[in-house]
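Reviewers of the previous submission asked for a worked example of the structure-prediction workflow described in the proposal, so we include one complete record here. The input consisted solely of the amino acid sequence. No template or homolog information was supplied to the procedure at any stage.
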Amino acid sequence: MGTMERRSSKSRPFSRDLEHWLKGDGDKTMAGLNRLFGEKTFAIAWLILMALPALPLPTGGITHITEIITMLLCLELIIGRRSIWLPRRWQGLNVGKLLSGKAGSKFIGFIVWFERLSRQRWSSLLARQAVLSVVGVLVLGFTVAAFVAPPFSWLDTLPSLGVVVIALALILEDGLILLGGIIVGILGIGLEVAVGAALYDGIRHLF
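From that input alone, the workflow returned the following structure tokens.
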């Protein structure tokens, strides 16, 4: 992903491509995702993997698996890899199931909303490896924050949503949306730290 492929103004919206992939009969594993979307697989993988923890719903332990995979992909992007690498057992992970049913339809609607707002703002910057490496560091930090959030606290929602918005910014090549995603992720970490500090202070006063 050293460069992001340019979107033509006449190209089919990404939301339609993703919806077709989710509803089709093709390979919906991580390996299939990589073959289909090429250099944009990093951003698309982040988008799909972090969509579940971004929802304020009980998701169980599956989110920890998706977060660990996201962290690994961040490290790969930071060092400049152009395609994703995953251990064999994770290559076969059916990521299509993460966005199945009503959750998938609502998420497609979320993407469509961003597509209507997006413009190719500062898109040339998003093609630079140095910028992509910095983005990888930020996404790694937000994903770690989501990973360490206490279960059923919903504190993983905002950091995960920040990753989702950043991924959309890379896919849609919009630097302004990227900035919005970074702000959402930082707010999420701030909320997590504030709640953690308040809980620690409360427990300390009890003893």
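Residues 1-10 have pLDDT under 50 and may be disordered. We consider this example representative of the routine output the project will generate in years two and three.
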